[in-house]
Design brief:
The complex is a heterodimer of chains A (281) and B (217). With 281 residues, chain A is α+β, with helices and mostly antiparallel strands. Chain A is 15% helix and 35% strand. Chain A contains four helices and 16 strands. With 217 residues, chain B is α+β, with helices and mostly antiparallel strands. Chain B has two domains: 109 residues, Rieske [2Fe-2S] iron-sulphur domain (Rieske Iron-sulfur Protein); 89 residues, Alpha-Beta Plaits. Chain B is 16% helix and 37% strand. In chain B, helix 1 packs across helix 2. Classes of the chains: A alpha+beta (281), B alpha+beta (217).
């Protein structure tokens, strides 16, 4: 199996709110696992040969690992702020590499074409320069000062606005998006993409949100986000090759793709190659 | 002896099934291709992969004389060169950004694509017109067998109620699935077209049944 380095990472394997005593069978990096809960509702994750796997319950999800995570799950301090509504969006299964799913989440240039009249619209297609860095202290990829014109930035938005974004990649299959919050200009809405790698070419995407929005019904918030991810799925299932090429030459990036370039470089540096295609292959 | 060029050409679609400002996926022997018709009516074929992020161009859209990728709107002209990158409206895309272009011929109601440099003229089917295309789980040999007719370069001659008909077959993009285009006499009446359509459907069922029987045996 490729991607040995990724085995010791945390991955989402289900929603805390949907834990069942009888358990649910799923896949993690090609291995069958069972996600259940004990008598007091605490999550348990086991392999098919009965081995107990590490468990963390956080951000609405159960997290586990086939290896031995060296550190606790990453922090999202903003998500703990009082007054936020926490939204379990559910799951979208996508026939693509888990890394391609994350890369698509980091991309804004596709908004006018894939999320037409929602997250973007022609002729507002320009991606202005933004800042990208690999923060060495935290060992995370960050993109800041990302701005984009959006006809309907969120379920709570009425009319077009220029939205500001920050992206953060704290783990190979997880990304956090901080986004201008229409009802509260001083705060950021938090939208995450937690990806469960089922295999190198199949994943379950678990979006999760922590929003300042007391008005919109929960169902509408969930539907809005699911619609966005279903639009992305039509792209993700039709990219060739299915795995993310980590070596230059296969694909042509531009300035708008600097977050993706940094993400690929960071993956390669850590040998996070589960779901990646290398030239040698 | 006259050189036979027909093997160099693949019949990818009937002209009638590719309207103006439309793009479809197709398979030729060596590649997946996106076949598109510009607003001026001309047909082009390019490799079915945008070099930016690997998205299939056959999911894209046609505006004017260019094919755009659905992912980020990168626009490609008939020569395969990238004409525009919407994320950078002020940028003139470098020459190096281009997609492979394949030769296209449109003749007697059929669109042909070739990966060969000099494929010669596309096969002629004078006096015929395209009626419809189908896909089926059978081989061209099985189809010819069902019709008790010869198979030559993927082509099978057929008679439907005294009317001349012809099948052009080629592998589809899907593994094990055959694509067949039915051509009928150019002057066919509405009722002849209807009969031909019904006959084609019956042939598909017969061929698929024959394949199943062969597998069972």
């Amino acid at each position: 199996m490729s991607g040995e380095a990724m085995i010791d990472q945390w991955y989402p394997v289900g929603l805390i709110s949907q834990l069942l005593a009888k358990g649910r069978q799923t896949l993690l990096m090609g291995e069958t696992i069972y996600v259940s809960c004990n008598a007091v509702g605490k999550a348990i994750v086991t392999t098919s040969d009965g081995r107990d796997l590490p468990v963390t319950e956080r951000y609405g999800h159960v997290w586990s690992s086939l290896g031995l995570p060296a550190a606790p799950l990453f922090d999202i301090p903003e998500a703990e702020q009082p007054g936020r509504r926490l939204v379990d969006v559910g799951v979208v299964r996508v026939r693509c590499s888990p890394l391609r799913a994350v890369e698509n989440f980091l991309d804004i240039a596709h908004f006018p074409f894939v999320h037409t009249d929602i997250l973007g619209a022609e002729p507002h297609t320009e991606v202005e320069n933004y800042k990208v860095e690999i923060r060495e202290d935290a060992d995370e990829v960050w993109a800041t000062q990302v701005k984009f014109y959006q006809p309907q930035a969120a379920r709570s938005a009425s009319g077009g606005i220029t939205t500001e974004y920050m992206y953060r990649v704290p783990a190979p299959t997880c990304s956090i998006l901080y986004k201008t919050c229409p009802p509260r200009p001083s705060e950021w809405d938090v939208i995450t993409l937690f990806v469960q790698p089922l295999t190198e070419e199949l994943c379950d995407v678990w979006p999760w949100m922590a929003l300042f929005d007391d008005e919109t019904p929960m169902t509408d918030l969930i539907h809005f986000q699911q619609m966005i991810f279903l639009q992305d799925r039509s792209i993700l299932e039709n990219q060739i090759p299915r795995r993310l090429p980590l070596d230059p030459g296969m694909e042509i990036p531009t300035r708008a793709d600097l977050t993706s370039v940094a993400y690929r470089r960071w993956l390669k540096r850590h040998a996070f190659t589960y779901g990646a295609q290398l030239v040698a292959q | 002896m006259q050189k036979d060029f027909s093997a160099a050409w693949t019949p990818v679609a009937l002209s009638a099934d590719l309207p103006v400002a439309y793009v479809i996926p197709a398979r030729i022997e060596t590649a997946d291709v996106a076949v598109w018709r510009a607003e001026d009516g001309t047909v082009s074929a390019v490799a079915d992969r945008c070099p930016h992020r690997g998205m299939r161009l056959s999911h894209g859209f046609v505006r004017g004389e260019a094919l755009s990728c659905i992912y980020h709107g990168w626009r490609y002209g008939k020569t395969g060169h990238c004409l525009a990158i919407p994320a950078h409206p002020g940028l003139r895309p470098p020459e190096a950004i281009r997609v492979t272009v394949y030769r296209v011929a449109e003749r007697d109601g059929v669109i042909w694509v070739s990966a060969t440099e000099e494929p010669g003229e596309a096969p002629a089917h004078e006096g015929f017109t395209g009626l419809r295309s189908i896909t089926l789980s059978a081989t061209a040999e099985t189809l010819a067998g069902c019709l008790n007719s010869a198979l030559r370069h993927g082509t099978i001659d057929w008679k439907i109620d005294e009317m001349k008909a012809r099948l052009l077959t080629t592998p589809s993009s899907e593994e094990g699935i055959l694509l067949a285009h039915l051509l009928i006499e150019a002057g066919a009446t509405q009722s002849q077209k209807r009969s031909a359509s019904i006959a084609l459907e019956a042939l598909r069922r017969a061929a698929e049944a024959a394949v199943k029987q062969g597998e069972a045996a």
